[in-house]
Amino acid sequence: MKFALFSHVPWPEDAAPRQVVDNITEEFCVGEQLGFESGWLAEHHFSRYGLGSASLMLLANIAARTTTLRLGTAVIIPPLHHPVKLAEDTATLDLLSNGRLDCGFGRGTAGYEYTGYSVDSAESQGRFQESIHIIKGLWTTRNFTYEGQYYRVEKANLVPPPVQQPHPPMFIAATRTRETQDFAAASGHSGIIGVVLDTGDGLELCRALVNGAAQAGKPMDIGGIPFFRYFYVADTEAQARRDTEAALNWTLDVNQWRRTYSQGSEVYDRLDDFRQTRTELPPSYEYLFQNRAFIGNPQQCIAKIRALQDAGINRFGCNFSFGGIPQPKVLKSMQLFAQEVMPAFT
């Protein structure tokens, strides 16, 4: 079992952006020392839900402070970038990190992000698929040429080329859109499972991707699919619940709130105002505890990870820092994980 860190870089109302970035950087550096294999950041725009609008820059900062930790994008949203520039930036990060980049791509789901970039979300599927072909082509092909509906490239040579050959590992995220699932399955690359799906739904999606890949003649190993969960371990279940309930509720509330905007975003509005006026509630903390988050004492967390391993998952990612949990508690949970949970899987 390979263990990873993950964060969507949340920005609670009482936190300074610099402190958020410093905390994530510290977590990933400490994670390397504790034996985590990789650290992954999400890309989000215009929202407190995620401060990682320039996730490759944040990862470059972490690359300069680490030596062995692999650096992952979970995920980059290609339709919000020009694919040639994205190929250049990812290849440069692979160079700066001496070949430690794992590149996850996804379409994203928030319409206001596309609006903010003046990109028609109805074009997202086509732009996404074309971008994947172009990025991989530029990574691997001299004088690369491509003619698509949205992008055109003529005899381009990528400078610098990526360190990893033939290219950095690629991961394609898919959730509920069948067209994206089919594309991911037929891509020849691994899927990736985010924290927004229930665990059972995530495993069902893994099996669907594996089956679809086999039908497309592009075998996918379920063991190679990174599987991320909200995660927190404490000495007791009661302590774990106390430390995480408000933070996990903030995460779900902000995620629900931001999706009510078709333009602009919630950054300078009040969450309490939304909570008082909304007509539908997100999943409860108890529901998330039972179905999505891995929260509890060491033995409970071991049992949940073991169940994933029994289903074939061999890459598990922990989202320790969600919703503004104080940094000392995050680091203590990471250390307890390394001391009490990791050894069960060696």
Write the layout of secondary structure elements.
Blueprint: E1 2-7, H1 17-34, E2 38-41, H2 55-63, E3 70-76, H3 83-96, E4 101-105, H4 111-116, H5 124-140, E5 144-147, E6 152-156, E7 170-173, H6 178-186, E8 190-192, H7 199-215, E9 227-233, H8 237-258, H9 271-277, H10 285-291, E10 294-296, H11 298-310, E11 315-319, H12 327-341
Parallel strand pairs: 1-2, 1-11, 2-3, 3-4, 4-7, 7-8, 9-10, 9-11
Antiparallel strand pairs: 5-6
Helix pairs in contact: 1-12, 2-3, 3-5, 6-7, 11-12
What is shown here, in short?
By secondary structure, this protein is an alpha/beta fold. Helix content is 45%, strand content 15%.
Unreliable stretches covering 5 or more consecutive residues: none
CATH class categorisation: Alpha Beta
Say what oligomer this is: single chain
Radius of gyration, Cα only, in angstroms? Answer: 20 Å
> What is the name of the CATH superfamily?
Luciferase-like domain
Helical residue percent band:
40-55%
List keywords for this structure.
346 residues, 9-stranded parallel β-sheet, two-stranded antiparallel sheet, alpha/beta
